[in-house]
């Protein structure tokens, strides 16, 4: 994976590490806990959790929280006439500040089915801290748990995969890992993963 010595805090610098971090995603069953998934570290500590319609009761709305339940991101799919006529569906990720107000931190464009092969999923971040907006793209196929998030230079910032021993034991893709490059905001990465999960697998759908 391509290294990145510079910190890139999109949600917060507290979610950026100076070394590569490998986190494990475990999807939760709808019948027991309303779906969604939890993210744990090598010590089995819950780092993030994602809740969707089964918990929130709203379609096309997701919440990314810290392990203790503190909300970090509200993610919604944009609707309206312009969206209906566009070749893309657009998702927006909003961070929460200490006063509870929200700020747009990233947008994700999901090509509609008939355009999906020619147009990859793209993510844009527009922050005052950066001189220009930062763009990212999904490479590979998320349903197979074989994909990466790459930046505009083609560097991998996060990689999704399944451990071989897990793949041999489990036919489903309910357990997989995400390796995050040094300096990259892990909360941002899992905000993107939350949308990919909704689009392709629907663990957060009603």
UniProtKB/TrEMBL annotation:
Domain of life: Eukaryota
Pfam family, any one: LOR
SUPFAM superfamilies on file: Tubby C-terminal domain-like (SSF54518)
Coiled coil: none
Entry similarity comment: Belongs to the LOR family.
This protein's name: Protein LURP-one-related 6
Source species: Escallonia herrerae
Lineage: Eukaryota, Viridiplantae, Streptophyta, Embryophyta, Tracheophyta
């Amino acid at each position: 994976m391509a290294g990145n010595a510079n910190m890139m805090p999109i949600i917060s610098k507290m979610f950026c590490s100076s070394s590569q971090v490998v986190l494990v995603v475990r999807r939760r069953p709808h019948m027991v806990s309303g779906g969604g998934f939890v993210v744990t570290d090598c010590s089995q500590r819950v780092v993030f959790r994602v809740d969707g319609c089964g918990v929130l009761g709203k379609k096309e709305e997701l919440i990314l929280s810290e392990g203790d339940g503190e909300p970090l991101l509200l993610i919604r799919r944009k609707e309206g006439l312009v969206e209906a006529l566009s070749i893309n569906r657009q998702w927006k990720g909003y961070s929460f500040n200490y006063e509870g107000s929200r700020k747009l931190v990233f947008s994700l464009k999901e090509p509609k089915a008939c355009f999906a092969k020619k147009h990859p999923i793209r993510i844009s971040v527009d922050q005052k801290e950066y001189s220009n907006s930062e763009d990212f793209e999904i490479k590979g196929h998320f349903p197979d748990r074989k994909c990466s998030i790459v930046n505009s230079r083609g560097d991998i910032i996060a990689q999704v995969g399944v451990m071989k021993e897990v793949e041999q034991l489990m036919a489903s893709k309910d357990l997989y890992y995400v390796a995050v490059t040094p300096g990259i905001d892990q909360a941002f990465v899992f905000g993107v993963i939350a949308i990919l999960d909704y689009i392709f697998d629907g663990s957060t759908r009603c």
